[in-house]
Amino acid sequence: MSDLPARSTTHTEPGSLPADLTSPPGHGPVERAVHLLRTVADARRPLGIRELGRQSGLPRSTASRLANQLINLGMLTRHSDGQITIGPGVASLLPNGPNPRLAIEDRLLPLLVELVERFGESAALTIDTPAGAHYVSQIASASPVQVPDATGSSIDFHLVAPGLALMSLWPAERLTQHLNQPLAEATDYTITDTRAIERRLAAARRDGYIWTNQELDEEINGLAVVIPDAGPPTAAISLYGPAYRFNPDAQPTVGHQLRQLVTKRAQHLLG
Question: Which of 24, 67, 81, 83 is deepest in the core (most CB within 10 A)?
Fold first, then answer.
């Protein structure tokens, strides 16, 4: 990352000033990161990215990028509702600082990184919430074909692999109530037929994993497994990649491999 002043070709959000004009002269990435930490600490309440950008005086894109970096370092924590607070890593800087229990996204971050390195696809952690399958963290792969970052979003359960994996654990009453409601169609591949969904969930219970085929985004496939004994809330780990290479025909054993790895590593990381 360069500390050189931004040139006129720098892209900013509409209505926002470039980062070098919203910070005191001479402020580089380290100073902005510390400023962001102080903003969160001084707020004394959780902040969303929009509010964080407003209070820090940084463009929202800059605040979001720095916040993600600090979250990965444990200095900030993003909660299941997308709000950000000071992370447990800050306490580790003090000689006799407390040792708080890490949130599930912090404890499972090494697993997401390992999955990206091993499978070469993006990995995400999702939890079961009343609003839908809520993405609490996502690590992007280095692939030139990128999957949109869904962190902080709640998506209809039937549209995404982790949502279907979570549904496979639902009691019959909740499942029936959900399937009796109108189900959104995101692409031509979205499956909304009740019986078809029930058959998929039965297969997920049998196999321990479930695939989706371009059901939320065309050309993107997903694969998910439930994390054993993670709840509450119930959580799932998923991989995402371009459909032309990431699919059960091209990689028939990857579902079994993902289930085995998540079961083994999550048990260790969650203690």
Answer: 67
Integer Cα distance of 18 and 9 in angstroms = 11
Task: Give the pLDDT score at 80.
Answer: 63
Q: How confident is the model at residue 253 (pLDDT cuts 50, 70, 90)?
A: very high
Identify the domain boundary among 99, 132, 163: 99
Q: Which has more pLDDT, 268 or 13?
A: 268
Report in angstroms the alpha-carbon separations of 71 from 86, 166, 271: 9, 25, 21
Beta strands in the chain (DSSP E): 76-78, 84-86, 122-129, 132-139, 154-155, 210-213, 220-226, 235-242
| Residue-wise DSSP of 42-93 | HH-S-B-HHHHHHHHTS-HHHHHHHHHHHHHTTSEEE-TTS-EEE-GGGGGG
Question: Is 95 found in the same domain as 212?
Answer: no
Residue 16 confidence (pLDDT) above 50? no
Taking 3-state DSSP, the helix, strand and coil percentages for the chain, each rounded to the nearest 5, stand at 40, 15, 45
Residue 165 and residue 230 in contact, taking contact as beta carbons nearer than 8 Å: no
Q: Are residues 121 and 80 in the same domain?
A: no
pLDDT one-digit tens code per residue, 110-152: 999 999 999 999 999 999 998 899 998 898 888 766 677 788 8
Q: Is residue 4 part of a domain?
A: no
| Number of folded domains that form the chain | 2
Could you tell me if 59 and 44 lie in one domain? yes
In-domain check, residue 226: yes
Q: Does one domain contain both 114 and 202? A: yes
